[in-house]
Amino acid sequence: MRYFLDISYKGTSYHGWQFQKNAHTLQAEIENAISRLLGVQTPIMASGRTDAGVHAKQQIAHFDTVESIDVEKLEFRLNRFFTRDITINSIVEVKPDAHARFNANERAYEYYINQKKNPFLQELSYYFPNPLKVELMNEAASKLLGTQDFESFSKVKTEVNNFICNITKARWQIENDSLVFHVTANRFLRGMVRALVGTLLEVGLGKLTVEDFIKIIEHKDRTAAGRAVPPKGLFLSKVTYPSSVYSN
After folding, report:
1. Which residues contact 39 (CB under 8 A, 6 or more apart)?
2. Are residues 134 and 212 in the same domain?
3. Whole-prediction pTM value?
């Protein structure tokens, strides 16, 4: 039997999602909990990795069992097992060949910037008090839409066959006291969102024009783009799947 875990976590205290020797990771923490509660080693596979310090409002991971399980009971026991940094929102049975990574249609991220100093947001947003021209940032962000090569915004050392992504949403919004960048795509490259945000901030500061931003996309060179912003403001916010992955 295969199940999808819907997980939320605060990534501040973890060295990212992916299991690493001698490091505290989310995958290791969750795998250990499920394995102990089910009484058998139970690997999990996520929709994608998140880096150290990155958070998730919704991460999806799958795991397998030999027999059917009581999902409500397991959800309750897992939430009692975990620290306050991890929450299991739901566990649902899916088809045996459903895959948390390969079957995902889209992934959405949010990046939070706080322009007014707030001690309660120190671990959940990037404090950036400089005045920004949000209209120009949105004009530049609109140039990201569609299927393009985003090598300029990818970490250099990464094992991928190509740098092509289809971005369907890229927009800055003011939400309460935060400035939030919303971006949705079929896939993301390593470090892509943080590099996009860092480069768009250069547009907002007036250091780059929209035309400069277009040239950076076309250049396909990471050194042409801006710096990567800190991980603490980044959230994996939603992962979507076709209805065909779910059991009837």
Report:
1. none
2. yes
3. 0.95
**Residue 127 CA, distance from chain mean position:** 20
d(CA 191, CA 50) in angstroms, rounded, equals: 9
Q: Which two tokens stand for residue 80?
A: 């009692």
58 and 9 inside one domain = yes
In a domain, 243, yes or no: no
How is residue 238 written in tokens? 């939603």
Write out pLDDT tens, residues 81-123.
988 899 999 999 999 999 999 999 999 999 999 999 999 999 9
Containing structural domain, residue 23: 2-103
Residue of 51, 85, 97, 177 marked active site: 51
List binding-site positions for substrate: 109
Q: Does residue 97 have an active-site annotation?
A: no
What are 178's strand-pairing partners? Answer: 114, 175
Q: What is the CATH number of the domain that holds 60?
A: 3.30.70.580
Q: What is the pLDDT of residues 148-160, one digit of tens each?
A: 999 999 988 777 8
Which residue numbers belong to the known binding site?
109
